[in-house]
Specification:
Helix content: 25-40%
Structural class: alpha+beta
Order of helices and strands: EEEHEEEEHEHHHEEEHH
Largest sheet: 4 strands, mixed
Distance between the termini: 42 Å
Number of domains: 2
Strand content: 15-25%
C-alpha cells in the first residue's frame, strides 16, 4: 500500500531539522495523483518553514504502476543493502510481464517514468543517447560533415567533446507530429537540449534486437549509460 512515512530532514540552508512525509511505496493504482508529483519532482521536495529554502529529499522509494506492469526502485547510495534488494526481488519472482528497474537518483526516476509513459524502451533509449553523443562530438563523422542531429554544431574543442561524452543525457519528451525525441544535458553550467528524429530510435531498436545479450536479466536491472558502455569493452 502507498502510505507516507515520517522522516527527519535537515535544511541545507539554515540547518533546522524538520519531520517530512516520505513515500517509500508509490502505488499509482492506489494514488494516481502521485504520478505527476513524481514526474515533476515535487514529491521529493520540501520547503523549510524557518527560512523558506526548498530542499531535495532523495529517499528510497519503490514506484509501482500496476496497470503498466512497471516497478522502478529509487535506491540512493547506502540506503538499501544488496541483501534487501535480493529479498524483495525474490518476493516478486512470480510476477509475470513486469518491467523491474533500479535507479540511483531522482532525475533518473523521473526519466524512467517519462519514457515508459511515452511507450519507449529504456534499453533502446540508452542506445539512442550513445549514438547522439557520438554524432554531437563528431565521433561517427568526418569533421567537415554537417551534424545529422538537430542541435549539434561545427567541430568542438577537445574539452567540450569530452564534457558531452560524460554528460548525463536525459529523455525529456516526444515532440511534434513525427515524435522527435528531445534529450536534455548539462554543459558549461547550463542545461542544453538536442532533438533527434524518431528514425534514430527505430535504428537503435534494430541494433538492440540483433544483440540479445543486451536483454536485461531478472530482477531490478540498472539500465543506464554505464550499463550500456559495458557492452563496448
Amino acid at each position: 500500500m502507498s502510505t507516507p512515512n515520517k522522516m527527519t530532514a535537515t535544511c541545507g540552508n539554515c540547518g533546522e531539522p524538520r519531520d517530512i512525509d516520505v513515500w517509500n511505496g508509490i502505488n499509482i493504482g492506489e494514488h494516481p495523483e502521485l504520478k505527476e508529483q513524481v514526474k515533476d519532482g515535487s514529491l521529493f521536495v520540501w520547503e523549510c518553514p524557518h527560512c523558506g529554502e526548498r530542499n531535495l529529499a532523495p529517499y528510497q522509494a519503490l514506484y509501482h504502476d500496476p496497470a503498466e506492469h512497471l516497478m522502478i526502485w529509487h535506491i540512493p547510495e547506502n540506503t538499501v543493502t544488496e541483501e534487501q534488494i535480493a529479498s524483495v526481488t525474490a518476493q516478486l519472482k512470480d510476477l509475470e510481464g513486469y518491467v523491474l528497474r533500479r535507479v540511483d537518483d531522482i532525475g533518473s526516476l523521473i526519466e524512467k517514468v517519462n519514457l515508459f509513459d511515452a511507450g519507449l524502451d529504456d534499453v533502446v533509449l540508452e542506445m539512442c543517447k550513445y549514438v547522439t553523443k557520438m554524432e554531437l562530438t563528431g565521433a561517427s563523422r568526418e569533421v567537415s560533415d554537417p551534424a545529422p542531429v538537430e542541435g549539434s554544431s561545427p567541430p568542438l574543442a577537445p574539452e567540450k567533446t569530452e564534457a558531452i561524452r560524460q554528460a548525463p543525457f536525459k529523455f525529456y519528451k516526444l515532440d511534434g507530429p513525427d515524435n522527435d525525441l528531445i534529450f536534455s544535458y548539462p554543459l558549461d553550467g547550463e542545461m542544453r537540449g538536442v532533438k533527434i528524429g524518431f528514425q534514430v530510435y527505430g535504428d537503435c531498436q534494430g541494433i538492440v534486437s540483433r544483440n540479445p545479450v543486451m536483454t536485461p536479466g531478472p530482477g531490478f536491472a540498472r539500465i543506464d549509460a554505464a550499463w550500456l558502455e559495458s557492452f563496448f569493452g
